[in-house]
Amino acid sequence: MRPAITLALNWPASFGRLVVIPALPTFYQIYHEIMLEIGIGDRMIDLVQEGVDCVVRVGELSDSTLVAHPLPPLRQVTCGSTDYVARYCLPSKLEQLEGQRCVDYLSATTGKLQHLEFCVHGQVLLRTLPASLAVNNGESYVAACEANFGLVQVPYYHVARQLEHGSLIEVLPQHRPPDLPITILYPHHRRLTPRLRVFIDWLDAQCRNPNI
């Protein structure tokens, strides 16, 4: 028998697969009466027309009329594949990025090219490297890195397994990119229902996990 309370959600594929879904049993230990209907995507959608209670979006947001509830930001890393590093060498300082390559990332929400960012003494420095491949999806971005196309900058959760197993190597850990914003969005005219409130609180706690 289906639970009586339904909550329709939408979030990016990699965030759902690697962060939310594995942790959902802890949600259902408390809120077993809530039925979650999950959609996958990065694009902005019409929540009212599509019957969605809220969306989770990673990265900077374009202008929106939705209520934005920020979650704890995601730490990011710069990494490359072991074969790539063996060919291009492992840079130990920013000046050694010359001669390196990257995978370009196009934001699915804004359509803009995301430059590489490095934190140096409290400032964010932008770097542009040559690339032969551009993608607009996190899964493809990491796959291109694993296929030796160049350096990428991604949330840690996205490459934690590969870094642990050694197929990817973190680059310039002393100059990690700034944390990545993550936001829950829901319509202005909908009050924050109890079922949405408990889900937001639960997801907020998951994003504070030091392993993410």
From TrEMBL:
One of its GO terms (biological process) is DNA-templated transcription. It comes from Pseudomonas putida (Arthrobacter siderocapsulatus). Belongs to the LysR transcriptional regulatory family. It comes from the Bacteria. Coiled coil: none annotated. Residues 6-207 form the LysR substrate-binding domain. This is LysR substrate-binding domain-containing protein. GO terms for molecular function: DNA-binding transcription factor activity; sequence-specific DNA binding. It holds the Pfam family LysR_substrate.
